[in-house]
């Protein structure tokens, strides 16, 4: 189990207890969907808990930081900025990438 899953189970977090919760794929600079990010921002403490796989160096990491919008993190290994893509923007990028090939 991941650290977010452990936090949810330990604190009995329900959807109504969250500011934000998402799990998304993240595109690399090469246009490949090689990364992932999961963010849980609980109302209790306004802290965003983030599990991610860097789309560039493929490092798996976990970190906690203050929740605010727009939300982004830096990979702890390579330092690249990883943002949580808006669903509409992500769909456009995926469509363009699929039509390039």
Would you summarize the structure shown here?
The protein is an alpha+beta fold and about 100 residues long.
Provide key terms for this protein.
four-stranded antiparallel β-sheet, 101 residues, two-stranded antiparallel ribbon, 23% helix, 2 helices, alpha+beta
Task: Write up what this structure looks like.
The chain starts with a helix and ends with a helix. The protein has 2 helices and 6 strands. It has one domain. It is of the alpha+beta class and 101 residues long. The strands form 2 sheets. It has a 4-stranded antiparallel β-sheet, with no helix packed on it. It has a two-stranded antiparallel sheet with strand order 5-6. The model has no long low-confidence stretch (mean pLDDT 89).
Question: What topology does this entry show?
Answer:
Blueprint: H1 3-11, E1 18-26, E2 35-42, E3 47-53, E4 60-66, E5 72-74, E6 81-83, H2 87-100
Antiparallel strand pairs: 1-2, 2-3, 3-4, 5-6
